[in-house]
Amino acid sequence: MTAPLNPPPHERSAQDSWPPPGAGPGAPGSQAHEAEAPGSQQAEYAGHGWYGQDDGPGMRTEVREAGVVAVAVALGGVLLGVLWWWLAPHVPLVGDVVEGNWVVYLKDTEGEQAVGVDGTFTLLGLAFGVVSALVVFLLRRRGGVPLVVGLAVGGLLGSLLAWRVGVWLGPAEDVVAHAREVGRGVTFSAPLRLGAKGALLAWPFAALVLHLGLTALFGPRDPEPEFGHGPYEAPPAA
Fold first, then answer.
1. Pseudo-torsion of CA 64, 66, 70, 76, nearest 10°?
2. Which residues contact 180 (CB under 8 A, 6 or more apart)?
3. Is the C-alpha dihedral spanning 223, 229, 230, 231 positive or negative?
4. Could you tell me which of 163, 69, 154, 71 has the C-alpha nearest to residue 120?
5. How far is the first Cα of the chain from the last one, in angstroms, to the nearest whole number?
6. In sequence order, what are the beta bridge partners of 95?
7. pLDDT tens for residues 158-208?
8. What is the pLDDT of residues 115-132, one digit of tens each?
């Protein structure tokens, strides 16, 4: 009796082939595997790499917060105006009648009260800029361009509001009528005037610089990228 011969290659059964017939692209098992693959990749990306980083609130939320900051900071200008009116030095004036017409003079021509008025507003603006930047940073450490812009705009609007409030609270702006009211040769205070309009920028400038500095020093840091390279192996000697 002779041993059975192996069938030729074209006559082998389908069970001997690899992969099995049911493992093709259209098989249920392969479909389940393919369906799980994207999910597993998303799960992997969700915890690693730039897909999983916290990008913070959206732009719409940041713009809304910046608007709230701008309005809140600008309202602080009322307090600045009151302090300016209270702390600024008074510029003494005196009225006289010359040829039947009322004229007003500076009582002390060499006085520096007018410079002190501008200096008081500038120092108060710097102080309010420091306080507003510190408060905004403590409440919102993440920072962001809209927030910084809102802080600067609010500081500028607050300075303008403080200027008008101080002038409104101060002495009457019609100095001739005021001189007539108090009488000839009687000293009275000049209205509050901001000679150096650059003092209006003290608040937004101080707030902008300090907030950027605090964010750079104490703000959140972006995580450093992690590279998955293995240990370095020296090439074999020739």
1. 100
2. 95, 102
3. negative
4. 163
5. 61
6. 104
7. 999 999 999 999 988 888 888 888 888 888 888 999 999 999 999 999 999
8. 999 999 999 999 999 999
